[in-house]
Design goal:
Blueprint (H helix, E strand, L loop, with lengths): L1 H14 L6 H12 L4 H7 L9 H35 L19 H14 L4 E2 L5 E3 H4 L38 E3 L4 H10 L4 E10 L11 E11 L4 H16 L4 E9 L2 E10 L11 E9 L1 H6 L8 E8 H9 L12 H4 L4
Helix pairs in contact: 1-4, 2-4, 5-10
Length: 347
């Protein structure tokens, strides 16, 4: 039996590596391990082996079976590699010119974000970042948002299950929920908790809300917010900065105005409108572009600042809205469709 097994393995080791196609491989496999195969026939002889010799013979058969399977696997792998190489064609010649269409370009939202950050850096702002997965404390509580505010409802905000865990986001209480941030104002809280005034930051980033997607709404979009905290900061400083930003980004013809509004984290609060009829597709005399106001003293108290000493302003706006104004885009969904015909226009 041992001689027969050795002869079988020697035959297989010589024959199998030379196979070129899958049909040849399947035929060879059947000859060795099929119902009528050579190894199968030897295994059927176990019934005639004396009882005391069966353990030793069984061991030899198992070893031969394992070795034969190794030869079969190697042969099949060789054939598969050959098939793949045939599909890929000849090897790439590294000396040939690249078949690429040229260097890539920045997305229009990236262009607007970087330009806004550049404009704000010129007047002393630094870029700050924070996690997109937040807790209720940073997103709502520290921003003076009451527990019954509509923004905290599950119909408006993406919450995670109570069992969710995130190592880089700490909870203030065990009962707090994790959520996808609804604004980048949470970065303002994190920044103020880390250090003392004066603070001057811009925080661009992705935010999430339960909106139905249409030409002007998306469940995920990009926001840019600014925070300035120092002594004797006034509404005049806020208006002057917004005038500077929009004149730098959209042109000197751009004008802004404030309309009284309510935000829990600023007091007084305003909606910001701008007029930019010199831009393409802008027909309305005034367009709402964002919200702003003086930081509410309650927010300062939440982060340990003395509101009798420090004052500041904050404002925020959507980057998609700015890009739509700047480039004359009339549907927000274009930004997310990865259509090269659209993206190449901003090269």
């Amino acid at each position: 039996m041992q001689d027969q097994l050795s002869a079988l393995l020697a035959k297989a080791s010589a024959e199998l590596p030379a196979l070129k196609t899958r049909p040849d491989f399947e035929a060879a496999k059947a000859r060795y391990v099929g119902p009528n195969g050579e190894l199968t026939a030897l295994m059927k002889q176990m019934g005639a082996v004396p009882k005391e010799q069966r353990p030793a013979v069984g061991k030899l058969i198992n070893e031969a079976k394992t070795a034969l399977q190794g030869h079969l696997d190697a042969a099949l792998a060789t054939i598969a590699n050959a098939e793949l190489a045939a599909q890929l064609g000849p090897a790439v010649d590294p000396t040939l010119p690249s078949p690429d269409f040229g260097p890539g370009t920045s997305h229009p939202l990236t262009l607007v974000r970087e330009e806004m950050c550049r404009i704000l850096r010129k007047v002393g702002f630094t870029v700050a970042d924070g996690p997109e997965v937040e807790t209720e404390y940073y997103c709502f509580d520290a921003l003076n948002t009451p527990s019954d505010h509509p923004a905290r409802d599950e119909k408006d905000t993406f919450y995670f299950p109570a069992s969710a865990r995130f190592g880089n986001v700490s909870k203030k209480t065990p009962e707090e929920k994790y959520l996808l941030r609804t604004h980048t104002s949470s970065v303002q809280i994190r920044t103020m908790l880390k250090g003392s005034p004066p603070i001057r930051i811009v925080s661009p980033g992705r935010v999430y809300r339960r909106d139905t997607s249409d030409a002007t709404h998306s469940a995920n979009f990009h926001q840019l917010e600014c925070l300035y905290v120092d002594k004797n900061v006034t509404v005049r400083d806020l208006k002057a900065l917004l005038d500077y930003i929009f004149a730098s980004l959209l042109g000197k013809e751009t004008k802004t105005r404030f309309r009284p509004h309510y935000f829990g984290y600023t007091e007084p609060s305003f909606e910001v409108d701008l007029t930019a009829t010199h831009l393409p597709k802008v027909k309305k005399p005034w367009i709402e572009i964002g919200g702003c106001g003086m930081v509410d003293p309650t927010v300062f108290e939440a982060v340990g600042y003395d509101p009798e000493v420090w004052s500041g302003y904050a404002f925020g706006m959507g980057l998609e809205r700015l890009a739509m104004l700047l480039y004359g885009i009339d549907d927000i969904r274009y930004f997310y469709q990865n259509d090269l015909r659209f993206l190449k226009q901003f090269a």
